[in-house]
Amino acid sequence: MDASLKALFDAADRAAQKAYAPYSNFSVGAAIRTPSAHIITGCNVENAAYPAGTCAEAGAIAAMVAQGETKISEIAIVGLKSNPCYPCGACRQRIFEFSDAATRVHVRDGATGEAVTHSIDALLPHAFGPRDLGID
Ligand code: THU
């Protein structure tokens, strides 16, 4: 793994350490790199009212948008306990909203620690997205 991807995974690891996951005990971290080379992270934040909990990717995307950025160049997702930690269906949709064909989604192979990389199209084929509503 090259240094830039390692930096992204390191940021995701640090975010996972901060996760608030007392119910599932499954901590997740996500780190987004934007075209302006910023790294923006998120972690899952659970809630006693279970459906109110939020995923790591959702937190990272919300922070990215709050910082005025709307493009994901690449995103790394890690679980503290178990890898690979693939984005859930709803998070694939969230990532798609801010992706293009070049966006890379990285998870970590649980055995080797190496990155496994996919396009968002591979993870969410035939996606419904902004284009369907006339927004490019
Ligand atoms: N989780 C994420 O943060 N991202 C995913 O894509 C998969 C699931 C979280 C949600 C919940 O807090 C815990 O992992 C167990 O589902």
Q: Give helix % range.
A: 25-40%
Distinct small molecules: tetrahydrodeoxyuridine
The major pleated sheet works out as: 5 strands, mixed
Beta percentage is: 15-25%
| Count of helical regions | 4
Please identify which CATH superfamily we are dealing with: Cytidine Deaminase, domain 2
By secondary-structure content and strand pairing, the structural class works out as: alpha+beta
Give me the side-by-side strand order of the main sheet.
2-1-3-4-5
Query: Terminal Cα separation, in Å?
Result: 33 Å
In sequence order, what are the helices and strands, one letter per element?
HEEHEHEEH
Number of strands: 5
Look at the structure and give the CATH class: Alpha Beta
Radius of gyration: 14 Å
Instruction: Tell me the number of structural domains.
Output: 1
Structural topology:
Blueprint: H1 3-17, E1 28-33, E2 39-43, H2 56-66, E3 74-79, H3 89-97, E4 104-108, E5 115-119, H4 120-123
Bound molecules: tetrahydrodeoxyuridine.
Keywords summarizing the entry:
globular; about 140 residues; binds tetrahydrodeoxyuridine; alpha+beta; Cytidine Deaminase, domain 2
Short structural summary:
The protein has helices spanning about 5-15, 55-65, 90-95, 120-125; strands spanning about 30-35, 40-45, 75-80, 105-110, 115-120. It is an alpha+beta fold. The longest helix has 15 residues, at about 5-15.
